[in-house]
Amino acid sequence: NAGVTQTPKFRVLKTGQSMTLLCAQDMNHEYMYWYRQDPGMGLRLIHYSVGEGTTAKGEVPDGYNVSRLKKQNFLLGLESAAPSQTSVYFCASSYTGPPDTQYFGPGTRLTVL
Amino acid sequence: AQRVTQPEKLLSVFKGAPVELKCNYSYSGSPELFWYVQYSRQRLQLLLRHISRESIKGFTADLNKGETSFHLKKPFAQEEDSAMYYCAPPGRGSTLGRLYFGRGTQLTVWP
Questions:
Q1: Rounded to the nearest 5 degrees, what angle is found at the Cα of A102, between the Cα atoms of A97 and A108?
Q2: What are B60-71's pLDDT values in tens digits?
């Protein structure tokens, strides 16, 4: 099993450009999450999904959209990137919600110039 | 919303010294609390959870309901314990299904 994978690993964008980050898991997990990690801010939840076709907002959803069309994939979109979205993005999945363990991907380092 | 506080951004100890990483949460009751760890160049992973009362890599964490704390402790720190540690309580009510991560404590264990 590959576990949780993220594509791409690195990306540099110019302000105003758009992009989609892909998260995939092969563990048949229902729940999937997108976090961003910034120095001094810890991990903050952007959006999450409790099952195929569902999405919910986290702490910092503005400027991002998500889709969960297939159970194994969770897409994070930036429609018009801003320098404030420079961050490391982590995807995670779990079979159910807490107290079930969340399994994390390796992260995507995004720089917006 | 649930709130979790990790008061120390950085913590340094020498190898063999005891270490305690502090975590305080904001709500009453008996929450299910977690500690996650991120070693350098590795993925974030679960270290331990309150409900299982286990000891992982020599770390333990006791839930103190009176102080609303869930501090992570190890009697003798090792260099390989150097990492970023996150305390994480789960959401409740409308935020059920998610974890709230603290801001993290970067632990450095010196040789």
A1: 125
A2: 988 887 878 889
